[in-house]
């Protein structure tokens, strides 16, 4: 197991190295002068030269790359010229919104999808299966930003149960903060739950056709026990894979939802930094999100071994 973990961590570090080179290279080849875009077309040559020097744009590309990577290794992500603040402080302010939003969304998605997937698999070919999978197909097809606008109209404008946008901060209390994240979490969770429910159903159907499931039923074991204790555990490998991918998406792919609900999260920070051409912020946030994806993948690999003893023995 130790060798397995060491191998996965090594692959993760290699992924981070390649990702850092790709992120830095892509932002370098973008057209336009960042200093010119930040100061405007009427900026004087002296002001442009001064800002380029502050941003390090007058240094060789390789020197800037290794300086950036070396700074990240010690927790220094650079300083934003738009916000006049260290990038790590900006990330710390925004991650307390994006991370709880991703966690709440994942909990909602899992709580909905797995029971629906099991229910549908247990009633394969019946009306309940057709209805639940039809609803899941609709959930997959609906864009989450359109669904978010619908939720705002119904629950914020019409019923006035929750705020339509903004975030009061955790200093205002736990419940006001969670209340502000409920609609965004639902808007993110339901499309993901539709995908996860279909994967759960497919995995369960494959397992329910195995001989040991038929043997358990022949011995008179209760149907609920067969489904939840035996079938679900052996169907969890593809489900865990999708869960890991979804958490990474919910943490990194919330730009549209955070802008719809005007949430001060990482997605909105990246969007603002791109429009203002604040490259050091974009680089720092993207690398943080890449690192989160790598960590989630390692955790999922560990859960594989926990769920399936055969993988643990092989590792």
TrEMBL record:
Which ranges does the record mark as transmembrane?
12-30, 99-122, 134-158, 178-197, 231-257, 285-307
Do you know which InterPro entries this protein is assigned to? BPD_transp_1_N (IPR045621), MetI-like (IPR000515), MetI-like_sf (IPR035906)
Ranges of residues in domain ABC transmembrane type-1: 95-304
Ordered alphabetically, the record's keywords are: Cell membrane, Membrane, Transmembrane, Transmembrane helix, Transport
Primary localization class, coarse: membrane
Where does it localize?
Cell membrane
Q: Which domain of life is it from?
A: Bacteria
Q: How does it sit in the membrane?
A: Multi-pass membrane protein
Q: What family does the Swiss-Prot or TrEMBL record give for this protein? A: Belongs to the binding-protein-dependent transport system permease family.
Its protein name is ABC transporter permease
């Amino acid at each position: 197991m130790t060798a397995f973990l060491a191998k996965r961590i090594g692959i993760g570090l290699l992924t981070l190295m390649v990702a850092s080179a790709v992120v830095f290279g892509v932002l370098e080849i973008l057209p336009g002068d960042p200093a010119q875009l930040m100061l405007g077309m009427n900026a004087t040559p002296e002001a442009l030269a001064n800002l380029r020097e502050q941003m390090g744009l007058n240094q060789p590309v390789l020197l800037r790359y290794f300086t950036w990577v070396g700074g990240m290794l010690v927790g220094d992500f650079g300083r934003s010229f738009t916000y006049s603040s260290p990038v790590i402080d900006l990330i710390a302010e925004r991650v307390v919104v994006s991370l709880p939003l991703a966690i709440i969304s994942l909990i909602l998605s899992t709580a909905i999808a797995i029971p629906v997937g099991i229910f549908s698999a247990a009633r394969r070919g019946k009306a309940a299966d057709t209805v639940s999978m039809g609803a899941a197909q609709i959930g997959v097809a609906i864009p989450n930003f359109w669904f978010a606008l619908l939720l705002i109209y119904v629950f914020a404008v019409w019923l006035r149960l929750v705020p339509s946008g903004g975030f009061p901060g955790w200093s205002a209390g736990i419940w006001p903060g969670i209340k502000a994240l409920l609609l965004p979490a639902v808007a993110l969770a339901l499309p993901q739950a539709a995908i996860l429910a279909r994967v759960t159903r497919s995995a369960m159907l494959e397992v329910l056709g195995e001989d040991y499931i038929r043997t358990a039923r022949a011995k008179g074991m209760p149907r609920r026990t067969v489904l939840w204790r035996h079938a679900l555990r052996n169907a969890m490998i593809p489900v865990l894979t999708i869960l890991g991918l979804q958490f990474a998406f919910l943490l990194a792919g919330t730009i549209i939802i955070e802008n719809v609900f005007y949430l001060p999260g990482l997605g909105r920070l990246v969007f603002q930094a791109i429009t203002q051409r604040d490259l050091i912020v974009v680089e720092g946030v993207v690398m943080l999100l890449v690192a989160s994806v790598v960590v989630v993948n390692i955790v999922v690999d560990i859960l594989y071994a926990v769920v399936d003893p055969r993988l643990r023995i092989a590792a």
